[in-house]
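Q: Can someone sanity-check these two? First one:
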Amino acid sequence: MSGFFITFEGPEKSGKSTQARLLERYLTKKGFSCLFIREPGSTSIGEKIRRILLDKRNTHLEHTTEMLLYMAARSQIVKEIINPALQQNKVVICDRFLDSTIAYQGYGLGMDRALIRTIGAFATERISPGITLLLDMSKSDSSFKKTANKDRIELRSRRFHDRVRKGYFCLAKQYPRRIKIVRVAKTILATQKEIRRIIDTCLLKKS
């Protein structure tokens, strides 16, 4: 692979999509060929799976089914978008990837994390991000509580979301060279400034 793969991770409403799109514009202005995608989604099949996963009416979706649906959408996006883009020397910026499944279904739901990793390696064809930006808000942040029209995942208990957050920190400790924790600042631009500093360093090393 000749391109560069960047992923954004973090708990609900941490600003991943906003920061990812700002980074895409920044790198495009610097002359990189960039592509922003989201998980699950960004493919016709992936978007259909996304609707199933986030539909709050699907209250009886089994945990195993949930995990496998995320993997199915991931397999599709790797084959259809990520692999070809990296081969074309593009910078791929993805809102969530395999770390999300480990954090949400592994730590959050208590599923077998070793099994998730095994299935994940198969679904992703062992593609791994060059850098992962983990956005973290203060635990006392109340913006999530105020969110209206929450989806099926967002409606889960605060304890579930606390386990997810702790899971992300565990992953960051396991992969400190890849996963960089970015504390969400008071302003979007302040957070973006730190993200750009990290990415500039990574891309300079790559070149």
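And here is the second, same format, sequence then tokens:
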Amino acid sequence: MGTGMNSRRLAVLCLTVWDGERRAVQPRIESLIYRSSLAANDRHLAVMLVNGVLRRMQDLDGVIASYSSFPLARMKSLTLMALRVGVYQLLFLDRVPDSAAVNETVQVLKKEHQPRWLINFVNGVLRSVAGNRAVLSQAAREDTVLNHPEWLVSRWRAAFGPERARAICRRNNREPPLTLRVNTLRAEAAGLAAMLRMKGYAVRPGTYAPQALVVESFSGPVAELPGYAEGLFHVQDEAAQLVPLLLAPFDRQAGNLDACAGLGGKTCQLAQLLGEQAELAAVEPNRHRFRLLEENIRRLRLTERVKLFQGRLEDFAATGPPPFHRIVVDAPCSGTGVIGRHPDIRWNRQPADLPVLQQQQLNLLRRAASLLLPGGILVYATCSLEEEENQQVVESFIRDNPGFAATDCGDAVPAPARKLVDAAGYFRSTPADGLDGFFAARLVRRH
């Protein structure tokens, strides 16, 4: 990180690094942008530019190709990313003046010591696009370009039909709403909503989950929202909030396990639902996510209610815990249901990933099931839209484990969410429903 860093330069560099790796962009956002010395608003703009380019990459490339005499495939990554960042500002950020979008992007290449001819080339392309900004911007916002790889679009057309597949893609191309889950141990939904409205935020109740609040058109760091530091809420999509409810009815004296805790959204929700007397264990193998899990549990004042284990589920099982009455397995997956929040997923994933993930998910489900008491309930969930990771995993597991049976998720979710349960009794949401894409199955161990 040299001198002269600003939002656009950080965004271009972050995207260039991502392009070379084609792995999750979030760690690069955290290391390059969040840890920079820029002001909070500038960091927010940099993240907006990174995610915006990833959401609209096919739109941007089509425009660049129309105004460039040089093929995109032969451009250096730094050059192409600078053009994408510049064109994104021109087409999708109305508040950014043409001069700032062009000049600040060109300055990135100057500070990266690019040759004069290349700087002039990029300047010329961006100025040509700026000259036709109104027409190009209108065309881009009509959403005729799906901005997803063809292999993924083809799968969704086959699974959901062409119209729903198009609706999923279009939803993924927009920044998703900020959805909160109220910490009912410290606040009520109506009271928190009233407090946020007094501070000038537009807030509405969620559609499906009882403790959900949606903050409309929010822009900025979540930590700056009133009530965040006090632990009054946790950021969590409504679909994710519905998954722990599938463990009902809850026994406040029994043992419970979150086998894949992640950042702790479902762990904290279970801690609220179960009460002080229930036993709740949470397992997370990744050290970085485990640290954030600890931070979230502390912020929500739930430390005394959860026993944490940093390690793999098999390592936890080796410690000899007593069997559990309720287990939730939110399995690591392709993440194709949360592309709207993590737009790089669409470009990082490949079809060959799915069978590998399926085997990992089956192994995880089998291990978790071995820790469940007879009569207990296990909820298997993913944030994937792909059958290989969802129904195929569940049905394969049941074939090999006849002591388990799938039960109807519609019996456990709130009435508004029953329309998200399919004929087989599985919970399924997609971005076309205005939610993250989730799958969940509710399994009972009969003996």
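A (reply): Looked at the second one. The first strand starts at residue 178 and ends at 182. The chain has 18 helices and twelve strands.
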